[in-house]
From TrEMBL:
It holds the Pfam family Abhydrolase_1. Gene3D superfamilies: alpha/beta hydrolase. The keyword Hydrolase applies. Keywords: Hydrolase. GO terms for molecular function: hydrolase activity. This is Alpha/beta fold hydrolase. It comes from Streptomyces xiangluensis. Residues 21-265 form the AB hydrolase-1 domain.
Length: 279
């Protein structure tokens, strides 16, 4: 397993899949990057370099757990770029990893070629996803056999009355198809996530949305935002707002896709991502 030393001596692991020009892939949720897999087969078009963020996957746990904070992880990404000997690199970030990518762009614009944000979190840029928006998206799934129980749980979350069972009950909303593959993917999540790191990721001081938005407005490189049509976590309407923060960005909404679009329709996802990264 290839590894490198971060600024504080923490050993960080990364995974290399496929051949061709590299694209650095940042996972979300302070979760083992294994959940990204080969992004539906994108490795047939680009070399994927999946980083295990500190404290996750095969990477070591840092002595200072405050270093899990998102803004501090930027230095880990920069250390990997230097380790790989890349003057400029393309970035692909999923979910919470988009917050890290946005902050990396803010501090190292000249080091980024193309930027692909897949169903991205919006914490770093200060956008708002309302409960009503999530409920509206959820209602698109009303013909699913699991809908009634999942929607009732979502209503308790939106109302601020969530329990642990509520979060588990809404899991089907994260996937375009709640089939065996999706259920296995979701079941593996708890064992892949570093919950301490996830709690520290967005600690006080992690984000400066005004500064980040100002920096992104100056980032002229090509940007792709890929949203899932039925994704509660990154609704297409909010992704359209996110797209507008960049001067050279396009939004693609993948039909019938949830938060993991490469699982819902690998061929469509790969066609979109490969076309963007190859042009």
């Amino acid at each position: 397993m290839p590894a490198f030393s971060a600024y504080d001596g923490t050993q960080l692991a990364y995974h290399v899949l496929g051949d061709g020009p590299p694209v650095l892939c940042l996972p979300g949720g302070m979760q083992d990057s294994v959940y990204l897999g080969d992004l539906g087969g994108l490795l047939a078009h680009r070399q994927l370099i999946r980083l295990d963020l500190r404290g996750t996957g095969h990477s070591a746990t840092p002595q200072d757990t405050a270093s899990y904070r998102c803004d501090r992880l930027v230095d880990d990404v920069e250390a990997l770029r230097e380790h790989l000997g890349l003057d400029r690199m393309d970035l692909l970030a999923h979910s919470g990893g988009a917050n890290l990518a946005a902050q990396y762009v803010t501090r190292h614009q000249k080091r980024v070629g193309k930027l692909a944000l897949i169903t991205p979190s919006v914490m770093a840029v200060g956008l708002t996803i309302t409960g009503d928006t999530r409920l509206e998206i959820a209602r698109l799934r009303q013909d699913e056999p699991w809908f009634a129980a999942a929607f009732a749980a979502l209503e308790t979350i939106v109302a601020g009355r969530a329990t642990g069972d509520s979060w588990q009950a809404i899991a089907p909303f994260s996937y375009g198809r709640w089939d065996k593959a999706a259920q296995a993917h979701q079941a593996a999540e708890a064992g892949q996530r570093n919950w301490e790191a996830a709690s520290a990721f967005a600690a006080d001081g992690a984000f400066d949305p005004d500064a980040t938005r100002t920096a992104l407005a100056r980032f002229g490189q090509p940007v792709l935002l890929l949203a899932g049509e039925v994704d509660l976590a990154a609704p297409p309407t909010v992704m359209a707002e996110f797209t507008g923060l960049f001067p050279n960005a396009k939004l693609v909404v993948q039909p019938e896709a949830g938060h993991f679009p490469w699982l819902d329709d690998a061929d469509r996802f790969v066609a979109t991502a490969a076309a963007f990264l190859s042009n």
